[in-house]
Amino acid sequence: MPSKTYRLYRPESSGFKLSLLSAGHFFNDLYASFLPTFIPTLISRLGITMAQAGFFSTFLGVIHIIFQPVIGYLSDRSSNPWLIICGPIVTCIGATMIPLSPTYGVALFFVGLWGVGSAMFHPQGHGGVGHVVPGEKLTVSLALFAIAGTAGVTASPLFAVALVNTVGYRLMPVVAIIPVLLLGLFTWKTMPSLSHESGSALSPQKGLFYTLK
To answer: Which pLDDT score, from 0 to 100, does residue 190 have?
Structure first.
């Protein structure tokens, strides 16, 4: 019995779907500078040292190193875009809860949650670009996708300060999550999914580890 392979249904409106993926990248990375922006707040509120504050960034890097390959492997085996939907939501929750942390341990937890959310989005987000655009437009499409993320990183500290100045720390998570929830719902309704039809794609059992050979 022949093994099943996954063939992606690639709709004609590839430009729209690239825009949707890029919007997800923008909002996911819009929280990238929340930690450095709120480090002075954490030092003042928690009474931590500079070394403890610096460990936040180290911990975040470790989270990315561990989780991105694992999540990339899971993404290869998934037939739904749930990672690019849930990633920005988890990122938003983690980043906006950091300055509200009552203890150093809780702050580490939210930094880790933020890192997991970011690690959830990026593997499937980059892979999704290849799924929704034709091959001859892949390079420029990846460039546009990357620019959207860079724009989010650039706006991140301004967005963080604007949220605090307008709604305060306690309402910041509630207000910030609204756009990513709406984008997630829209993405779920419009993103393509993998089908069990025959095609030239790799078997999901091979996935990432086949690619790394």
So the answer is: 76
Give the pLDDT confidence score for residue 79 in this predicted structure: 65
Number of domains in the chain: 1
How far is residue 16 from each of residues 11, 21, 22, 84, 185, measured CA to CA in Å?
A: 10, 9, 10, 16, 15
Angle at 134 between CA 3 and CA 2, to 5 degrees: 5
Alpha-carbon span 49 to 139, nearest angstrom: 44
Q: Please name which of 132, 39, 127 lies closest in space to residue 77, comparing C-alpha atoms.
A: 127
Whole-number pLDDT of residue 206: 46
- How many whole angstroms separate alpha carbon 11 and alpha carbon 14? 6
R_g of the chain, CA atoms, integer Å: 19
CATH number of the domain where residue 179 is located:
1.20.1250.20
List per-block mean pLDDT (blocks of 10 residues) for the chain, which spans 213 residues.
48 73 93 92 94 94 92 79 89 95 96 94 85 82 93 95 95 95 86 47 43 35
Asked if the structure places residue 5 within a domain, the reply is no
Q: Is residue 2 part of a domain?
A: no
In a domain, 114, yes or no: yes
Q: Whole domain around residue 116: which residue ranges?
A: 12-191+198-211
Please provide the distance, in angstroms rounded to a whole number, between the alpha carbons at the two ends of the chain.
26
CB 156 within 8 A of CB 30: yes
Q: Report yes or no on 147 lying in a domain.
A: yes
Inter-residue contact 60 to 35 (CB < 8 Å): yes
pLDDT at 202: 45
